[in-house]
Amino acid sequence: MKIPDLPPDLRFPLLAASDHEFSFVVKADAMGAYIRHRWGWDEQFQRAIHQEKLLSKPFSLIISGEKAVGTVSLQKHPGHLQFGEFYILSEHRGRGLGSRVLQHCLAVADEERLPVHLEHLIWNPVGSLYRRNGFIETSVTQSHFILKRPFPVGNEKG
Question: Is the full-model pTM beyond 0.90?
């Protein structure tokens, strides 16, 4: 799903093949510590998993001004939007950018009148951002919280 730009300074072009290395670098920067903490970092394995994800869902770059600062995926499914692959380079975190991107994607979901689903590693503190923005836990696996941001009852599509 193409994410509309967020004036004045954020754009979300779909990831091109030439951006695949950047998308892996930003994932490693954002998630590396959390993956190492639990499983260690196997570069070849992580690249293979990332390549599978690149083929299975739409990725968008997050461009702030003229600089690529992260990636995000917003995928439309029957009855909901799936939010994920949300990675921001460390030097751009802690300034509200993640909240702006998330809230923009939630506004897109509201326009579509759909709930939003996502998952995140249990030991990743990003969960507090999601919960502050209306997500609730629907289930948990050994490694992930599964969250949903409901759309007001009676307003869903379908």
Answer: yes
